[in-house]
Write a structure and sequence with these properties.
CATH class of the largest domain: Mainly Alpha
Domain ABC transmembrane type-1: 115-346
Radius of gyration: 26 Å
Order of helices and strands: HHHHHHHHHHHHHHH
Largest sheet: none
Subcellular location: Cell membrane
Helix content: over 70%
CATH superfamily of the largest domain: MetI-like
InterPro entries: BPD_transp_1_N, MetI-like, MetI-like_sf
GO molecular function, one term: dipeptide transmembrane transporter activity
Structural class: mainly alpha
CATH architecture of the largest domain: Orthogonal Bundle
Membrane topology: Multi-pass membrane protein
Distance between the termini: 40 Å
């Protein structure tokens, strides 16, 4: 019988190709682990530095001394700080952020209940900012120094300068109180609130899937104003960065070569320049989305939107540190996840960034 020859060089070359991939995966895992550990450390020590005694928040400041000491022991707050941190990390890795003093529910249960509202609001705000901001940025770059370019720059300046809570209050006064074009604070009218069976927690999806179109339009009416406000701030950032990226691309040599070949200006702008500008723009959109997820506290407070931001605000006002730290960790983890996702998409869109 003929024997198959084995090429030892082929085996070694295959190993050389696999090792960089494994090393890259290992680096990715280590970076994620260290970042999350750093996030947990920061939130833990902030919770210990804040001059709020979680024991008194639970039992009250008039509780007997022996009750206070027993509660402190049950919570492990009488142990050394490093030991408390190890216990804290172990519980967080199991999804246990403790019990909320305000609601008496596990913090993770509360977060699962309120996070879909924040996700719905931030997602629609990012869509508004992206769908309007990217074309505005492109046209501003193409017509640099023109009227549209000046308008886009003013939009960006106002978006960075005006406090979001003031714009929210003014929007409520004008569009809700005076004109009556949209529904007011809250997520849905109480008439529909108890007729829905939550599936995803995202009201637009739940009402559409259940065919409750009156509730759908009511939820949309409540969502339009806060989502538009967040969308405006996202638009200001995205349009400014799109303009900057497009100006850089339009000055490249391949654009000059494309024009010399007789390609239409529209094709050069939308199929070539914008396509290359989308690579860094993915990171910008991801950061904007993460910023809306973590920074919608004031918007949710102004519009009484029952999301994670309002939950953290109410918990902080009631010295419910378990809920505050749990919400902070979740937001931080989402931010880290979106950053990592944008890095992966960056590599997929631009092969030059991939390592061989």
């Amino acid at each position: 019988m003929a024997q198959t020859a084995v090429d030892p060089q082929g085996g070694r070359s295959g190993t050389r190709r696999i090792l960089p991939v494994l090393a890259s995966i290992a680096r990715f895992v280590v970076i994620v682990a260290l970042t999350l550990l750093g996030l947990l450390a920061v939130t833990f020590f902030i919770g210990r530095v804040i001059p709020v005694d979680p024991v008194l928040a639970i039992v009250g400041d008039r509780a007997p001394e022996h009750v206070i000491e027993r509660t402190r022991e049950e919570l492990g707050l009488n142990r050394p700080i490093y030991e408390q941190f190890v216990i804290y990390v172990g519980k967080v890795l199991q999804g246990d952020f403790g019990t909320s003093v305000l609601t008496a529910n596990p913090v993770m249960t509360d977060i699962r209940r309120v996070f879909p509202a924040t996700l719905e609001l931030a997602t629609l705000g990012t869509l508004i900012g992206s769908l309007i901001g990217i074309p505005l940025g492109v046209f501003a770059a193409v017509r640099r120094g023109g009227l549209l370019d000046q308008i886009v720059r003013i939009i960006g300046l106002v978006g960075y300068s005006v406090p979001i809570f003031w714009l929210g209050l003014m929007a409520l006064v004008v569009f809700y109180a005076r004109l009556g074009w949209v529904a007011g604070p809250g997520r849905i009218d109480i008439v529909y609130e108890y007729t829905l069976s939550p599936v995803t927690g995202i009201l637009l999806l739940d009402t559409a899937m259940q065919g409750q179109w009156d509730a759908f339009w009511n939820a949309l009416s409540h969502l339009i104003l806060p989502a538009s406000l967040l969308g405006y701030f996202s638009l200001a950032y995205i349009s400014r960065m799109t303009r900057s990226f497009m100006l850089n691309e339009l000055s490249q040599e391949y654009v000059v070569a494309a024009r010399a070949k007789g390609l239409s200006e529209a094709r050069i702008i939308w199929r070539h320049a914008l396509r290359n500008a989308l690579v860094p723009l993915v990171t910008v959109i991801a950061l904007s989305y993460a910023g809306l997820l973590e920074g919608s506290v004031l918007t949710e407070t102004v519009f009484a939107w029952p999301g994670l931001g309002l939950y953290i605000t109410n918990s902080l006002q009631n010295a419910d540190m378990n809920a505050v730290l749990g919400g902070t960790v979740v937001i931080g983890a989402v931010f880290i996840g979106l950053n990592l996702l944008s890095d992966l998409l960056y590599g997929l869109l631009d092969p030059r960034t991939r390592r061989s």
